[in-house]
Amino acid sequence: MVLGLFEQSEADKRAAEVRAGTVAPTRSERQKCWMARDGYFACLDRNNIIDALKDEKAAAKACKAESAEFEKDCAAQWVTYFKKWRVQDIQKKARLKELEAQGAVRMDVNTDFKARE
Questions:
Q1: pLDDT category, 116, cuts 50, 70, 90?
Q2: CA angle 14, 17, 19 (to 5 degrees)
Q3: How far apart are CA 74 and CA 69, in angstroms?
Q4: What is the rounded distance in angstroms from the CA atom of residue 71 to the CA atom of residue 77?
Q5: All structural domains of the chain with their residue ranges
Q6: Would you say the C-alpha torsion 72, 70, 75, 25 has a positive or negative sign?
Q7: Residue 12 has what pLDDT?
Q8: Contact 80, 40 (CB under 8 A)
Q9: Are 100 and 106 in contact (CB under 8 A)?
Q10: What is the separation, in whole angstroms, between the first and last Cα of the chain?
Q11: Confidence of residue 9 (pLDDT cuts 50, 70, 90)
C-alpha cells in the first residue's frame, strides 16, 4: 500500500506517541533512546559542552545530527531529564574527586532494605 503525502506509517505514529509521552516505550525503544543519548553525550564531551540546556546554541551547532537523533528516539520529557541529569552527574563526579583529593575515603554504602540475616 502506498502512503499518501499526509499519512504516517504505524511506526511513525508510534514514535510520535513515545516522543509525546502518551505511550510507554518498549524495551527496544528505550534501548534505542539510550543509544541516541549516549551518542549525543559523546558529541557534547568531544566539544567540551557540559550543560546542553544552558549552552543550547553551542550544543545545537556542534551536535546537530546527534541532537536530532536523540530527540527523535526519546520521549521529550526524557530528553530534558537526561540533559539535566548529565550536568548533575558531572558535578557529582567532580565533587567526589575534590573530596578524595582532600583526603576523603570512599565508602561502599548499601541502600538495600532487605532484612539482614
A1: low
A2: 110
A3: 8
A4: 10
A5: 16-101
A6: positive
A7: 85
A8: no
A9: yes
A10: 63
A11: confident
